[in-house]
Design a protein that fits this description.
Elements lengths: L14 H33 L11 H15 L6 H8 L3 H4 L6 H14 L10 H18 L4 H7 L4 H17 L3 H24 L12 H10 L6 H10 L4 H27 L1
Helix pairs in contact: 2-3, 2-5, 5-8, 6-8, 6-9, 6-12, 7-9, 8-9, 9-12, 10-11
């Protein structure tokens, strides 16, 4: 039976709907009371020395646990209840440390970027930019299920700000104007997150960074009529079979070369 043919739930004013809603609310209240009782019992046991002291809840610990859940179950599997279970605390206890799921998602995004080493400021700016961009890609591909979250929400936490500040510092030291440094950073950021998004959720990705259907896509391209698509026919073997690392490096090379040209133009204009 299709979704549009499935029987609709009874409207809210029906007695069975009101009963179901009351029962659901009663169950939530019961679970919350049970969690509070369990928390109080555990705290009393800890004070008496009858239970091992629990590791304190911190923003970093919440972010680590949330990222583990995303890696395992995807963003849809990251709920406040699941996160509380991962941390070994009650849901109500967790709300003392995070306001809602949105805050948890922001913590995950920032934790993700925090795993990428900052570019080395002692390198030539081209090498530093390359190093930093490749590090971000490697980090994102270790957590393919979290890439979409970063693309959709962005990140402005402490880790993201450190990365932004370090990269801007490298570019400004090289002689880029503030505007060009910002534009270069945003261009690099969009490139690496967009490329990783395609790698992990594009038409030939399986959602975990692997590749599926690559040969099928290639065969489809080669089956197109060459008189209508002569250039596609000539490049069909390369469209879905080229090495992804090489393709990423090609794009990064082009961006850095473009930045070099922009920097040279700016210096000539200022001379």
């Amino acid at each position: 039976m299709s979704d549009d043919q499935a029987p609709l739930p009874p409207p809210w004013w029906r007695i069975e709907s009101r009963r179901a809603a009351k029962e659901a609310a009663r169950q939530v209240r019961h679970e919350e009371r049970s969690e509070r009782r369990a928390e109080r019992s555990l705290r009393r046991a800890e004070r008496r020395g009858e239970a091992p002291a629990r590791e304190p809840i911190t923003a970093d610990r919440v972010a680590q646990a949330a990222l583990r859940l995303v890696d395992r179950d995807g963003v849809e599997g990251l709920t406040v209840r699941a996160l509380a279970g991962e941390l070994g605390v009650g849901t109500m206890t967790l709300y003392w440390y995070v306001a809602d799921k949105n805050e948890v998602l922001d913590l995950v995004g920032d934790r993700l970027l925090g795993e990428a080493p900052l570019p080395d400021p002692d390198l030539e700016w081209q090498a530093a930019v390359r190093q930093g961009t490749i590090s971000i890609r490697e980090t994102l591909l270790r957590h393919p299920r979290a890439v979409a979250l970063l693309v959709e929400r962005g990140a402005l936490g402490p880790s993201a700000l450190r990365l932004l500040d370090a990269t801007l510092g490298i570019l400004r030291k090289a002689g880029f104007s503030d505007r060009d440094a910002v534009d270069a950073y945003i261009t690099l950021s969009n490139f690496v997150t967009g490329y990783c998004s395609y790698e992990t959720s594009g038409p030939t990705a399986d959602g975990r960074g692997g590749v599926v259907g690559k040969d099928l896509m290639s065969r489809y391209m080669k089956s197109l009529p060459p008189d209508r698509y002569p250039n596609v026919d000539a490049a069909a073997d390369l469209l879905f079979t080229s090495d992804r690392d090489a393709r990423f490096n090609f794009g990064l090379d082009c961006l850095i070369a473009g930045f070099e040209a922009k920097l040279g133009t700016g210096r000539k204009a200022g001379s």
